[in-house]
């Protein structure tokens, strides 16, 4: 990473701790494939198992997968009235949750408490925190992002994901759902631009590029292989949602396919032959720099 002409990739997986199937898929993709890091859902049903895996697998960099929608809370639900239901579940509707957080200022203090509790729980379970991302990328929601910036300053978290993807690069490789991808691009481009300014001011780093947003749940080996020659100088995060069948409730076919993609030796060879170095957020956090985050370059058409 000494030259801006170098190309590096962080290959990451979301939802660590969600289930034993997800944990197994992530572990296999790291041990036998190209996965370099993951992010933990600290209130997930298999979070304790995930933490044990993290302790036994120091080469797997584990960040926090912040959950404020479509998941479970860390705090007692009596402390989160207006945010979760009586069982401690956040709204499963991103629109409902987003509108609630934006317009109901009375719940912002409790939301901050929950986000703090997730950071504290992560540090208890894992012992370090190199990066934060968000379930459904909700961490760039304006209210959530404002709170997150306060907390990452306090806890000195060095890196945060920015979900801003070059949509035309993705459409060149996968033509499906073009309208949905274009709408997503407009929304997340604006939210990421706003968040980027705050991260710059806080001295927090992020990758130069990202893929996995618009093609989430529809990844293929051909798509990932097609990204490799398109990777620009700098650091790109490509994120996945793998899970494997371990004899219980089988995960989706798409999640199982992602394990196969991540462990395909042809992809590792393709990264090597292209001169793309596989790194993780710990590498990004510790790489030499002047205190300013890496520049967030504009994507080609994205």
Ends apart, CA distance between termini = 24 Å
Query: CATH fold name, please?
Result: TIM Barrel
Q: Assign a percent range to the helix content.
A: 40-55%
Whole-number count of domains = 1
Average pLDDT value? 93
Secondary-structure element pattern, one letter each: EHEHEHHEHEHHEHEHHEH
Rg on CA atoms, Å:
18 Å
Describe the sheet with the most strands: 8 strands, parallel
Written overview of the protein:
The chain is α/β, with parallel strands linked by helices. The chain has one domain: Alpha-Beta Barrel (TIM Barrel). Helices cover 43% and strands 13% of the residues. Strands 1, 2, 3, 4, 5, 6, 7 and 8 form an eight-stranded parallel beta sheet that branches. Strand 4, helix 5 and strand 5 form a beta-alpha-beta unit. The longest helix has 25 residues. The radius of gyration is 18 Å and the shape is globular. The C terminus is likely disordered.
